[in-house]
């Protein structure tokens, strides 16, 4: 222990004062967290973050649970009530056998009869038999005659009791740590009431049979044992056996002793249990710290990594440790946190790109506005000034429309997270959209045809308002690209536990190289003749974001004979059925 004391200490400086703090077990198990009880101050805490613990509460709880689980059976063993009762019963049975032997010897040799036939016990021969048979100093043997008088006592030898035998305590031995701990435990156990129902043993100067109930019952021919409180051990055991001659009771032999050996056996058992408990406690503590280390230390690493992510000091320092090889819940947590961090970084990159795109898109109308204003200041012709003012108005309207679309796109994530999801009948919803289009469409506008299975419910779980926004935007695009008098086909079907909505137009389609790019923010590919600036290029991007929020997908492709541009565009939206 002396060699370990040095390495197991570390210097801690706080407010200019130096002190020593032992880290104890944690250096033995590198997986276990460092030991220091209670919270400690940290820079993160000063900035309002949570407490940081040198020993996590999880470690303390694991250790407490394991120690309590160990203490419960040990506590029952220390109480040792059933074990004590078993020893008492065995000792009483041995005393009965001894009492039968003494009573039989006295009955055969010391019981005499008068001329009238009355039996009596010869005290001289009886004392001699008791002296010879009572070769165990701890066992006291007494003889009572039928009138209740005590005529012999193994603790008094010689005439008149000139010599008295008294058992002395064994020589005291130097106590070790286990004896000291056992003494404390026994002191606490003694507070538990165990012998409230027992009578107390009292030593009297001239004892008679009436002082002992078992002797009175032995006069009736019964062999009775009794347990009383008292004596050096706290208990006194006694057995009374009748002395008989020719089936007539002439007296009773009473054997009694302190339960010293029983208490010694119990104490020896407790010492062994205490030694085993100490060893088990050390092993349990070490294993608890090891187990806690395999749980708490990875969690502390994950918490530290999350703290670095929160502070945002460089992406290299924000890497979440990968514990997925563990194959347990902590590994799952590590994987989820890594995925969450990657998604966060992707969202940050997307936000950065979005900000750059917004800056670029807003700069175009602002540049046009600046040019128009600077030119108008130099012109004197009212007609030219009026023309420039119309350009300024168009740029302002374009800028207002762009800012509105950007605002809607930037709020989409938070609004989708708050949307109430419910059952949506896709067929009914698409029929309503087609009917609305046919009602407001001009006579030469493209015709929209709906193909659906009326016998299928085609029900999904989603936000109906957002889905309407998606399909209204797709229908609007299809109408704007289709020629006058053309046909737009909307097909709604159920395929492999999904609902597919296919919208096909007869427009020029789009280049195959732009199949993915058309879903980017601010991408515009408008038909010829359409006025510039009437669309922000956010519609398909918003539609894709809404569909993916419903765990679905949206795909754009060309169809027809021409492999380059095709004869029309086809958008397929796939949504999972509830």
CATH homologous group name of the largest domain: PAS domain
* Helical proportion, percent range: 40-55%
Strand content: 15-25%
The total of helices stands at 13
Instruction: Work out the radius of gyration.
Output: 50 Å
Stretches with pLDDT under 50, minimum 5 residues: 1-50, 159-163
**CATH class assignment of the largest domain:** Alpha Beta
* CATH domain topology of the largest domain: Beta-Lactamase
Major sheet, described briefly? 5 strands, antiparallel
Number of strands: 20
How do the strands of the widest beta sheet line up side by side? 8-7-13-12-11
Taken from the alpha-carbon principal axes, the silhouette is rod-shaped
* CATH architect. name of the largest domain: 2-Layer Sandwich
Question: Can you characterise this structure?
Answer:
- The chain has helices at residues 2-5, 43-46, 57-79, 81-109, 123-133, 177-189, 213-218, 260-311, 329-378, 382-418, 426-440, 464-481, 539-549, and strands spanning 9-14, 17-22, 39-40, 52-53, 111-113, 119-121, 140-145, 150-153, 156-157, 163-164, 224-230, 234-245, 248-258, 422-425, 447-452, 459-462, 487-495, 498-504, 553-559, 568-576.
- The protein has 578 residues and is an alpha+beta fold.
- The chain has four domains: 2-77 and 273-314, no CATH class; 81-160 and 175-258, 2-Layer Sandwich (Beta-Lactamase); 320-417, Signal transduction histidine kinase, dimerisation/phosphotransfer (DHp) domain (Helix Hairpins), CATH 1.10.287; 419-578, Histidine kinase-like ATPase, C-terminal domain (Heat Shock Protein 90), CATH 3.30.565.10.
- It has a five-stranded antiparallel β-sheet with strand order 8-7-13-12-11. A five-stranded mixed β-sheet has the order 15-17-18-20-19. The chain has a two-stranded antiparallel sheet with strand order 1-2.
- The longest helix has 52 residues, at 260-311.
């Amino acid at each position: 222990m002396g060699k370990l004391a040095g390495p197991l200490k570390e210097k801690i400086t706080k407010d200019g004062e130096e002190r020593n703090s032992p880290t104890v077990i944690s250096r033995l198990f590198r997986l276990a967290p460092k030991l220091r009880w209670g919270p400690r101050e940290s820079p993160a805490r000063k900035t309002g973050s949570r407490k940081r613990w040198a020993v996590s509460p999880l470690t303390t709880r694991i250790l407490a649970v394991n120690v309590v689980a160990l203490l419960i059976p040990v506590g029952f063993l220390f109480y040792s009530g059933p074990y004590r009762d078993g020893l008492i019963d065995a000792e009483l049975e041995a005393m009965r056998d001894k009492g039968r032997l003494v009573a039989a010897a006295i009955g055969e040799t010391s019981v005499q009869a008068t001329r009238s036939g009355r039996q009596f016990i010869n005290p001289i021969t009886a004392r001699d038999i008791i002296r010879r048979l009572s070769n165990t100093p701890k066992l006291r043997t007494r003889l009572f005659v039928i009138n209740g008088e005590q005529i012999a006592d193994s603790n008094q030898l010689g005439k008149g009791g000139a010599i008295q035998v008294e058992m002395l305590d064994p020589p005291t031995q130097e106590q070790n740590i286990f004896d000291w701990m056992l003494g404390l435990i026994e002191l606490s156990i003694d507070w538990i009431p165990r012998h409230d129902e027992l009578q107390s043993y009292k030593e009297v100067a001239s004892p008679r049979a009436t002082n002992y109930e078992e002797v009175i019952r032995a006069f009736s021919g019964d062999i009775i044992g009794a347990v009383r409180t008292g004596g050096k051990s706290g208990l006194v055991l006694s057995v009374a056996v009748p002395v008989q001659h020719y089936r007539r009771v002439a007296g009773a032999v009473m054997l009694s002793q302190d339960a010293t050996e029983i208490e010694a056996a119990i104490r020896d058992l407790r010492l062994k249990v205490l030694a085993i408990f100490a060893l088990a406690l050390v092993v349990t503590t070490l294993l608890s710290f090891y187990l806690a280390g395999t749980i708490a230390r990875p969690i502390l690493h994950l918490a530290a990594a999350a703290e670095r992510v929160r502070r945002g000091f460089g992406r290299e320092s924000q890497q979440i440790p990968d514990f997925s090889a563990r194959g347990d819940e902590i590994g799952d947590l590590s994987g989820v946190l890594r995925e969450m961090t990657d998604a966060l970084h992707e969202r940050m990159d997307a936000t950065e790109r979005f900000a750059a795109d917004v800056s670029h898109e807003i700069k175009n109308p602002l540049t046009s506005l600046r040019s128009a204003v600077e030119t108008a200041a130099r012109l004197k012709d009212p007609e030219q000034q009026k023309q420039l003012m119309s350009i300024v108005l168009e740029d302002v309207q374009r800028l207002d429309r762009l800012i509105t679309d950007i605002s809607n796109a930037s709020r989409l994530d938070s609004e989708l997270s708050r949307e109430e999801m419910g059952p949506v009948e896709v067929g009914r919803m698409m029929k309503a959209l087609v009917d609305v289009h046919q009602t407001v469409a001009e006579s030469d506008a493209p015709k929209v045809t709906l193909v659906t299975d009326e016998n299928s419910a085609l029900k999904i779980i989603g936000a109906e308002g957002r889905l309407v926004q998606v399909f209204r935007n797709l229908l609007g695009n299809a109408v704007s690209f289709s020629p006058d008098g053309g046909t737009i086909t909307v097909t709604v079907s159920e395929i492999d536990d999904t609902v597919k909505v296919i919208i096909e137009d007869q427009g020029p389609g789009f280049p195959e190289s732009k199949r993915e790019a058309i879903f980017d923010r601010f991408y515009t590919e408008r038909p010829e003749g359409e006025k510039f600036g009437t669309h922000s290029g956010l519609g398909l991007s918003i539609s894709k974001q809404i569909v993916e929020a419903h765990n679905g997908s949206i795909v754009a492709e060309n169809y027809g004979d021409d492999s380059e541009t095709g004869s029309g565009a086809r958008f397929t939206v796939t949504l999972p059925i509830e």
